Amino acid sequence: MDQIKNKMAALRAEADESAARADEFKAKVKTLETENTQKEQEITSLSHRNQVLEAEVEKLESSVKTYKDEAGAGAQAGTQAESLQRKIQVLEEEAEESDRTIRELNEKLRQTDVKSGHYERKVQALEQARDQWESKYEEVVKKYDDSQKQLQELLGELGNI
Question: What is the C-alpha end-to-end distance of the chain, expressed in Å?
Fold first, then answer.
């Protein structure tokens, strides 16, 4: 009888541990989903910023062309064209940096998706294991109850003797 109690206690402990691990994995999945959402928002923000920068680059390139046409009129126009050229170069570098950041974020997002899928599979496996342990526990409880009933019947018969 002590063995059954010990086994039941062990099964309960394993079931509790499995449930705790399942909760832990659910929390990890939720955290990864939150990170995923944040990364997507950051990508959207960077994409918008990149579009704004590209529009500004196009506008500045148009201005540079206009200034280059007027450059023959004076040295001051040439200086302004150089300044605009430097601004274009800086903006192009910023655009390249934004593109690089977007690529990195996309890679991180992909990795997060892979990790999330992995943890979801682990959670499903743990939930299945938990269900199996619960089923086994219920079977053991039923066997225990049946054994108790048989013991009571046997004690009743021994008492009648």
Answer: 24
**Structure tokens that stand for 12 in this block:** 């309960």
CATH class of 2-160: mainly alpha
Domain boundaries, the chain: 2-160
Reference 19, options 136, 135, 134; nearest CA is 134
pLDDT tens track for 110-122 = 998 899 989 899 9
Match 């003797």 to its residue by tokens. Answer: 161
Please give the C-alpha separations between residue 42 and each of 35, 52, 100, in angstroms, as whole numbers.
10, 15, 13
Check: CB of residue 11 under 8 Å from CB of residue 137: yes
Which one-letter amino acid corresponds to residue 61? E
Helical H segments across the chain, by residue range: 2-70, 75-160
Beta strands in the chain (DSSP E): none
Judged by DSSP in three states, 1 sits in coil
Measure CA 68 to chain center: 51
How far, in Å, CA of 14 to CA of 133, rounded? 8
Which residue in the block uniquely carries the two structure tokens 């048989």?
150
pLDDT tens by residue, 31-40: 988 988 998 8
